[in-house]
Design brief:
- By secondary structure, the protein is an all-alpha fold.
- It contains 32 helices and no strands.
- The N and C termini lie far apart (172 Å).
- The relative contact order is 0.03.
Length: 652
């Protein structure tokens, strides 16, 4: 009973105090604030003390973080030489990573690294690995990474812009964990060297990889990195050695390295080296599929054509032919075509370098690019004819001329541009036909005779004109006359203006000129027969004066309109015979016919006037030049050579 009273008295006193407090708020109290809700918080985990581990690690585990005597941990001075930078463990983030790393083993850490690599969290990868490698596993042994896990660590360090020297130090530390570096480990170091352009160090590292064994033998990536560095530093010969080593090792040359090779070889003018690389790639079965991009093929072809490198141009066009074939076989088909101007230049290169393979491939790609929708341009036909003439393949050259005539026989371009003229467009064919004298000319003529009797027959005035002009080039007037006569008698064709021009050229070279009245009385057939009869009586022929000026009069009498070449040849015939006045008369007729004399023609006439001391004719030439705004210029050096007096008696 007494105890109950005591409790009640205490409760009463408490209630009175509470009431007094509400009545007098100025009276001090123990707490004037509301009660705060408090929740327990986890304290930061304390750093591990340098006390002996309760479970001693195995000294044979190979971890460099523990000494052989487990009771004596690593001294404080050795922590600085570890892979963990000093101060990392004093950061709160490192402590959280350390707590996370305690829950990971090797396989789970690989999965975490895969997630970090996807999001490119390289710094966290490095910190997590460095925390994980200092911890113990479930068995109380230090965590031991394998080579793949360590390579992820190296990749993260590489992505954090670590130098090649730092990565080499980390690779050297792999031996402390009983890990043998593999090819991927050294490739990461090579990538760092590639970024720093350390080509010499990269070569030494590759040589070390070749000597270490199978686990670290260089692969295609290793060779690509070294070759790329050598090309970037313009060490082309050294790069070629490693290209050869790559191909002999059975690896494929990557397109990136090939693009670097093309760029460096073109910039340094080493197209021979580029050709050598392509040939080595084509000689290997696993590199035959090398195919540069379409734009790169065009670039290589343009460079090769500019430098007249037929082999490189052939390889470039060969790559383009493969692209065209793949496009045609695709579904839906992709129709690729090569610019005709590029192929025209390639045909010209083939003629200058005597490359029949380049010529055949260029013409095949041209035909395939046009897809039989139209014929090639006249310039393409002429380029092929001239290239075949340079190669000495006259039979194919005249066959191409036949195709050319069939395609453009009735074209207005044939008349306006004289695309069948033996003096201009077909002149290389003329030179090739007369290269070996009458032997080659007779072979060509008999070939044309056989084609005229074939089925279907081929009869060409342009081809016969080339033979006539070829005869004139070898000073064989007899064969020139016979060929001219055969145009009508044997082939049943009509001579054109180029036929008469070629005949006038033959007369002019033999200094045959004369009056302008003979062809008005005799037909050309009678003149030819008279000339052939006079071959046994030269004096009779000289009296008849069948000469260049008469041929000119005859063609005008037949209604054939002479061209500028006709007047130029007649002027040359007069100048050869030192008749500058007659030459000036022909030039005046040329001007009246609507043609403009060339600067070269006027200079030839002026030179003859000065040598003949005909100053009146010289003034006429100067007035013509002023009329057509032609600057004649001086010929002092030519006059000095002309006025030299050679005193041969003094040296006798």
């Amino acid at each position: 009973m007494a105890s109950q009273m005591t409790i009640l008295s205490r409760a009463r006193k408490t209630l009175l105090k509470t009431l007094n407090h509400h009545n007098n708020p100025l009276k001090a109290s123990i707490s004037t604030s509301t009660i705060l809700r408090q929740e327990p918080e986890l304290a930061e985990p304390a750093l591990p003390q340098s006390s002996p581990s309760p479970l001693p690690p195995n000294p044979a585990s190979g971890s460099p973080l523990y000494n052989t005597n487990w009771r004596n941990p690593i001294p404080q001075g050795q922590v600085q030489s570890s892979i963990i930078p000093q101060g990392y463990l004093h950061q709160p983030s490192v402590s959280r990573l350390q707590a996370f790393a305690r829950t990971l083993d090797g396989s789970s850490l690989m999965n975490v690294f895969a997630d970090f690599m996807t999001s490119q969290r390289w710094e966290e990868m490095v910190q997590l690995f460095e925390c994980w490698i200092r911890l113990l596993d479930r068995n109380g042994k230090p965590n031991k990474p394998d080579v793949n896990l360590y390579n992820h660590y190296l990749r993260a360090k590489l992505m954090m812009s670590s130098s090649a020297g730092e990565l080499l130090d980390l690779v050297a530390q792999m031996e402390d964990y009983a890990i043998i570096p593999n090819t991927a480990s050294f490739n990461l170091v090579l990538k760092a060297m590639y970024q720093a352009r350390e080509a010499e160090a990269a070569e030494k590292l590759v040589q070390r990889m070749l000597q270490t064994g199978k686990e670290s033998m260089p692969d295609d990536e290793s060779y690509d990195l070294v070759i790329g560095m050598l090309f970037l530093t313009a060490q082309i010969d050294a790069a070629l050695r490693y290209v050869d080593l790559t191909l002999r090792s059975g690896y494929t040359l990557s397109m990136k390295v090939f693009a670097d090779c093309v760029r460096i070889c073109v910039n340094k003018g080493r197209l021979d080296a580029l050709v050598s690389i392509i040939e080595r790639c084509k000689s290997m079965d696993h590199n035959k599929a090398l195919s540069p991009s379409w734009n790169m093929c065009i670039f290589i072809a343009e460079v090769a054509i500019r430098e007249d490198n037929s082999k490189l141009a052939f390889y470039a066009l060969e790559f383009m032919a493969k692209w065209i074939g793949r496009g045609d076989n695709a579904r839906p088909p992709v129709l690729l075509s090569v610019d005709e101007g590029l192929l025209l230049s390639a045909i010209g290169t083939a003629g200058r370098t005597y490359s029949s393979t380049l010529l055949d491939l260029s013409w095949t790609i041209l035909r395939r690019s046009l897809r039989l929708k139209r014929a090639p341009q006249p310039e393409s036909y002429l380029a092929k004819v001239n290239a075949l003439a340079e190669l000495g393949n006259l039979q194919t050259a005249y066959s191409t001329l036949r195709e050319f005539e069939i395609a453009y026989r009735n074209s207005p371009e044939a008349v306006e541009e004289d695309i069948f003229s033996p003096f201009t467009s077909l002149h290389p064919l003329v030179l090739a036909s007369s290269k070996n004298g009458f032997e080659t000319l007779d072979t060509v003529y008999f070939q044309l005779e056989n084609l005229s009797r074939a089925d279907p027959p081929y009869k060409s005035v342009a081809a016969l004109n080339c033979v006539i002009l070829g005869c004139a080039n070898i000073w064989d007037l007899d064969r020139a006359y016979q060929t001219f006569e055969a145009i009508g008698s044997s082939f049943g064709l009509t001579p054109d203006i180029h036929s008469y021009n070629a005949l006038m050229h033959a007369f002019g070279k033999l200094k045959k000129r004369g009056v302008k009245r003979f062809f008005g009385e005799l037909s050309l057939e009678q003149v030819l027969s008279g000339y052939l009869r006079s071959r046994q009586q030269p004096s009779t022929f000289m009296n008849t004066r069948v000469e260049a000026s008469r041929v000119f009069d005859h063609l005008t009498g037949l209604g054939v309109k002479p061209n500028a070449m006709s007047y130029s040849l007649l002027v040359d015939a007069h100048l050869i015979n030192r008749d500058q006045k007659a030459a000036l008369s022909v030039i005046e007729d040329m001007i009246n016919a609507g043609f403009v004399p060339t600067k070269q023609l006027l200079k030839k006439v002026r030179r003859r006037c000065i040598r003949e001391m005909d100053y009146e004719s010289d003034e006429r030439v100067e007035s013509m030049a002023r009329k057509f705004n032609i600057r004649m210029g001086a010929e002092n050096r030519i006059y000095m050579l002309f006025n030299l007096e050679y005193a041969m008696a003094e040296y006798a």
